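User: Fold both of these, please.

Assistant: Here is the first one.
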Amino acid sequence: MTDRSTPSHELACLSQLRAELQQAEQLQRERGVRPLTRVRRHARRLLHPAPAALALALAGSGVAAATGIVPAAWQPHFGSPGSAEQQPTVTAGKPPARQLATIGILRRSQTPADRDAATLALRYFGTSTQGVRTDYIHSLDLADGHKAVLVPATTWHARIPNTGDLSKRDVVCLFIADDNGDGGVKGCYTTAEVLDATAHLALGTTFYSLLPDGVTRVEADFGDGRVVGAAVADNVAAVIAPTGMAPWPMTITWLAADGSTVKTSVLGRTPLPVPPSSPGGS
């Protein structure tokens, strides 16, 4: 008598395929996209799948590999309301591995709160930033009370007055919102710039630094004998300048969790960045 039962290893593969298909359907539903694949509730339909379907389940790890469905990237609005010409391209792709390994906050799963907080920041992003990795945008609550948003992108290009064109690839843009919620300051940095201690911004009386993993505290020397320390949270430190001093230290020292020095960098009196004055900035 012929044994028509399904081998145990096939059943295991089918169970995995069904679970991944259900996960994909739930992911599409959460993103507001009509599911492209419907999982049948009748197990007998899955007992003897086509060889190609079984190979697909075995070939990949994760929902996209098993179903062939690549979730669409989040498509928020950029620039001023109604400004279709200011919309940059977006991508569902991941940041480069080195960037993910360097900036831990990018490895955290995005939340609805991240997207809500990004609404203001994205008004100041235009077509000079392309390939925005919208699923990796994160919001931060800084120690000085300001809100910050990290926006990874494939490319950034801008025309700097008296300097010329400036282009960067695989950047993380840091936006700090102004106190009144209308405006702020923004800078876009490569992973190398973050590691080289050149990813800095200033707004009001505060100096901000985007930092790699492993740095838990910074000490900023303002050149007059006063040194101000600040803890690092979510890869960003906010250093409030001493009274009467511009928020740009002469040197900044990175410290590890054990108090040891990771790096000391000389900044000098670098000109302060100019905050974007209207939506749709670079």
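And the second sequence with its predicted structure:
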Amino acid sequence: MFNPKKLVVFLPLSFAFCLQGFAQTGSVSVAIGSPHVNPSPYSVPVVGDDLNIQVSVTSTYQINSVIASLPGGRSVTLTAGTGGYTGTISLVGLPQDTTLLTVTAVDVYNNTGSATSLFIYDHPPTMTIDSPAYFTVAMPNLHVHSRCHSDSGACTISVVLNAAGSSLVTLGTYTDSVDASYDLSAYEGSDGAGSNSDFLELSATDRRGVAVSPPWVPFYVETSPYLTPVFSADKNISDF
């Protein structure tokens, strides 16, 4: 006869262990090493088209996955290695602005931990130098014509003279373009090919501080009123 007071239910041993396992709780901690925001002085890192991510994870139990994600749904599963968990997210097509990165780690018992970090997506400015050409002769004025472009707004052009035997001399700073001539008669006697050389350094910097610096432009200075240029080239001319 059935006795309701003595009903006993037996569970398989493996199922009992599963129930105990899913009940496990533990801690998961995530620390983002890159991109890293410097707290003092405060600065947010600026990156280009690829965001390289490096994080470290500490947990009570084995980690099952570590995922880095951006607003809008773009994400990547990070790979474990000797330096922690690493991966790369392409930023191409995203707005060039300050963006929040979120990294979430999940262990085998579904415990989670996460961390966030800011970064700035920004293309470097581009710069075009129309003049002077390499090995131009300033007689004694040197004409400088250059333009820059930045996706993030206006950019600043710096024109700097790297004179032989002296410190750097800033000839001028300009917004977006420069079209100016400089009297360099004080620097006659050194050339852009020898050890005592003069160079013109031009650089463009956008509003976020990202800068580009094309190769320096070597030049000569000549003040004699009796000499007239008859030929020019953007490289050394051999004299036989």
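The helical segments are 13-22.
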